[in-house]
Amino acid sequence: MMNLTNSDYILVFLGLLSLLVFLSLIILKRYATTSFVANKLNLDKYKIHRISRFCLGIFTFCLMVLMGNKLFQTSDTLYLLIYSFTAITSLQIFWWNLTYNSQKDPSSPLFFKLKLPDQAQKIKYRKQLLARLQSDIAIRRKNSLHNLIKIDLVMEEQRHQVGGKKMQLVSQDQEINPLDLLYKIGPAETTSINAGQQIIELFDRDDIQGKLLILGEPGAGKTTELLRLAQDLIDRAIVNETSPIPMIFELSSWKNNQTIRDWLIEKLCDIYKGIPNELAAQWLDNQQLIPLLDGLDELGLEKQNQCTIAINQFLDRTFQSGLVVCSRREEYERAETKLEKLNGAIYLEYLSDEQIQQYLQSLNRSYLWNESIRNESELLELVRKPLFLTMLVVAYQGRAIRNSSELFEAYIEQQLNNPNNQGIYPPGKSPTKKQTLHYLVWLARKMEAERETEFLIEGMQTTWLESTKQKNVYRIIFRLISSLIGNPNKIQSVEKLNFSFSKYKDNLIFSLIGGLIFGLIGGLRRGLIFGLIGGLIFELSAGFSGSEREYKNFPNQGIWNSLKNGFNLGMIGLLIGGLSFALIGRLNEGFSVVLILALIFGLRGGLLTVIQHFTLRLHLYQNGYIPWNYAKFLDYAAKHRFIQRVGGRYRFMHDLLQKSFAHMKLNR
To answer: Quick check: pTM over 0.70?
Structure first.
């Protein structure tokens, strides 16, 4: 028979009261739309559902504590097993209610927080994404080398680049055979476009319908025009909620045999990590996105052909919201497969002599034309591309420059020696020229090898280690930990903690059995108590998982958030373990178990990520590939306009500059 103390009576009263409220809410839920009480309290079915779950959680918590107290007040084995089973079941129900998501998203930690309705959530995601895109595009345009040039580029329309089919609308009153097509096919044309005409005007043309190919030579300003188009489309989408959202994607990350639809969804959710996969797919399928694809030529000829086929297949799905592709002209023309499903193509022409002279005159650099450019035919052809003209203005110091390699060298030399680019490091503490070049060359090589155009410090993986020996040593360090925690080869930031009840319950029985076997070493009673509680709490940590935030506000943000979350979850594990053993009066005996559980909670909450990242950074630092304070160095490089920073992400000022560094010799 169970003897109740005063504290037990309080638990019984609180539990019965919660159960009574729970049952009342269940009845009220059936009449939520007509009930006077529900209307008076402004309770809809969703709120009633959440409150009822809360009350059920209170009831099961009281039952759990009550049963836990009685474990030590009986010597009867049958009662002992009944109390143990009831306590464990109550704890499961309590935790399930604490993390239950009525919209069936098991990875969302709701902790009694009401989730926004679907439509409101979509509007919120759209506004956040547009704000992020607007900020990123503005920063990229501001820091771009092309931003120094205020020249209206001359464009030439080359419809034959997309199949040579010019669509001519048939008049409605014209008599035609019903079997004829709506469009007649006209001859291929090449026509000049007036200087100063905006690319958004071409994008909106009825015969192009937002499906456009942008061609040009290296450094001609293709990405700059794409950024300008993206900015115009973002402004339009902000004003008009029905306008699709433009998004720039780097085609260099496209994988063979991957559909464009799947790749776009994957990249959207990877770059903007707060967007659910289902919402990204819905946006794409409902024509609410405009993919702006940059760098088709970066794939290599064979892969470029496969990607072109995939784009054509994607456009075959009656994708009407628009799609733009950027590519270098020579690589595009060399490929066998063309983008036949696009409706128009433009080619960014070279700058004329008059445009070059006008630009130099506006900067009071007219002497460059007379002293250097006019008499050097190779240099003249080079500066007809806006990027190289900008770099020449920055880099020219009277030394002869004849080709792109010499221009890049002069630009790097000038930027390193410019006193206006100092200030990141204290006087005398800046990296030497040799160190700066070494770090940038190594970074450019790794980004080229990984086919990446953006770099995150927390995004570095074990593949960045140079030798097999380094990789093996790194893996050995984490092999033991990984047997308890997870994959040691993947470093993933834990910026947001989620709890999945499905993950928790899948292996619950094995953890309980394992804990029971381990605990039975100390006897039946000790095994039932320490083993079951320890196993239950251990598996509780397995229900937690981490995810990254959709935006990086500062460098290495993911690692700092992982450290914070690891510490917080470790404290939660310490609290849960400590309270569990304290409630049954065995805190002293179970203190070592509590510490182990807290450590496991902390590792799963982000501390393992921090250790992995620090170990990787330490390897790279000791081998001379990166400085100790990597974020500070990258800001130093951004100050010198070798790279640009957008939030916590870095990219080289231009892909040609990245390739130039990557082809330099790596000197230690």
So the answer is: no
